[in-house]
Design goal:
The chain has 6 helices and 11 strands. It has 235 residues and is an alpha/beta fold. The longest helix is centred in the middle third of the chain and has 31 residues, at 119-149. It is globular. Bound molecules: zinc ion. The site of zinc ion has 3 residues, from loops.
Length: 235
């Protein structure tokens, strides 16, 4: 059973499980807070547990905010965008014709803008471009790994997700990937692809799942650590 509580300004997903002790996590990429609790513990006890750990939670969440004082992107000339773990300066250019709004070339990311284009419009153009980049990189990786896994996914969705890098609907075989992955080094995307495909044979994160991961990608634990250590590059 999963439920949500609020402690001061912090929303907490609470999951009751057959475990012995309460367990608190602050997760990448956006610092979502999750508690796993034994089935016999009351919501009031979970609330007190979270309240007692608020300072720690806030400290963890700071790590996901990027360098101190970093402002959100305004999509202006000279700002830095990340693609596959590398920084690129953003350059604005007048948009001509019906070509793509965003292009990578000459070591920079060029965003074609119309007169009076709003920050929201630019943000949407860049987000759509990241989704395209991610889809273009993910599809060949999925095709590469499906034979080793012996299952095929049915559908790929790319979207911003608050608390997860990817997900797999084992009932219909659909896989979702977090757009943020396009900003990370490519081996981290490959790890998430393999992880979600392995869910097509084993839905939970049990020992069978881990054995498959180790067989297919021996260094997967290292990649998982790397992925969860860094907060969003900038988003
Ligand atoms: Zn999983």
């Amino acid at each position: 059973m999963t439920t949500q509580i609020q402690v001061e300004d912090i929303l907490v997903d609470v999951q009751f499980k057959r475990i012995k002790r309460m367990n608190l996590r602050v997760q990448a990429p956006h610092g979502a807070v999750r508690v796993s609790a034994p089935a016999w513990v009351s919501l009031g006890a979970v609330q007190r547990f979270v309240a007692a750990n608020l300072a720690w939670i806030r400290k963890q969440q700071k790590r996901f905010e990027g360098p101190a004082g970093e402002a959100p992107l305004r999509y202006l000339d000279g700002e830095t965008l990340y693609l596959w773990g590398r920084p690129y300066p953003l350059r604005l250019a007048p948009r001509r014709g019906r070509g793509p709004a965003v292009q990578l070339g000459g070591g920079e990311i060029v965003l074609g803008v119309g007169t009076g284009s709003s920050r929201q419009k630019r943000a949407a153009q860049v987000a759509a471009w990241y989704r395209e980049q991610l889809r273009g990189a993910a599809l060949p990786l999925i095709a590469k790994w499906e034979p080793a896994i012996g299952r095929r996914m049915s559908r790929l969705a790319i979207q911003q997700m608050k608390t997860r890098w990817g997900s797999c609907n084992t009932a219909n075989g659909a896989i979702r990937l977090n757009t943020e992955l396009a900003k990370r080094p490519p081996h981290l995307l490959e790890y998430v692809v393999v992880h979600e495909l392995v869910h097509l044979i084993e839905p939970s994160h049990n020992q069978v799942f881990k054995d498959h991961m180790t067989r297919l990608m021996p260094q997967w634990r290292e990649y998982r650590r790397e992925l969860n250590r860094a907060g969003p590059v900038n988003s």
